[in-house]
Amino acid sequence: MEGKMDKNYSYPIDYDWTKEQMESVVNIWRMVELAYEKEIDREEFLMKYKKFKQVIPAIGEEKRWGNKFEALSNYSLYRVVKEAKISTKKRIHLIER
Questions:
Q1: Is 91 helix (H, G, I), strand (E, B) or coil?
Q2: Distance (Å, rounded) from C-alpha 94 to C-alpha 29?
Q3: What percent of the residues of the chain are helix, what percent strand, and what percent coil, each to the nearest 5?
Q4: What is the spatial distance between Cα 17 and Cα 3, in angstroms, rounded to a whole number?
Q5: Which is nearest to 81 in space by CA: 51, 53, 46?
Q6: Within its chain, how far is the Cα of 42 from the centroid?
Q7: By the 8 A CB rule, do 34 and 1 touch?
Q8: pTM greater than 0.85
Q9: Tens of pLDDT, residues 46-57
Q10: What does the pLDDT look like over 58-76, one tens digit per residue?
């Protein structure tokens, strides 16, 4: 999966995480990008979000990492998670604010 072509930022990750943990977090950042740039499968996102939560289980930490990503990309993890949880649609697409 590719992010936007003019992406000039690095995904926020903790280098103390294992390779698998880093992959789980990077997968969420990619899905959030795609939710804004194209569209994503809701169930696939929720599955990857569950793995992300195994790496970052605390709400405060999730908020901190989500804010880091949003500061870099202008894409909101919170908004995608909220939409995925309340939507009944199979695909999700968000519009930038």
A1: strand
A2: 14
A3: 60, 5, 35
A4: 22
A5: 46
A6: 12
A7: yes
A8: yes
A9: 999 999 999 999
A10: 999 999 999 999 999 999 9
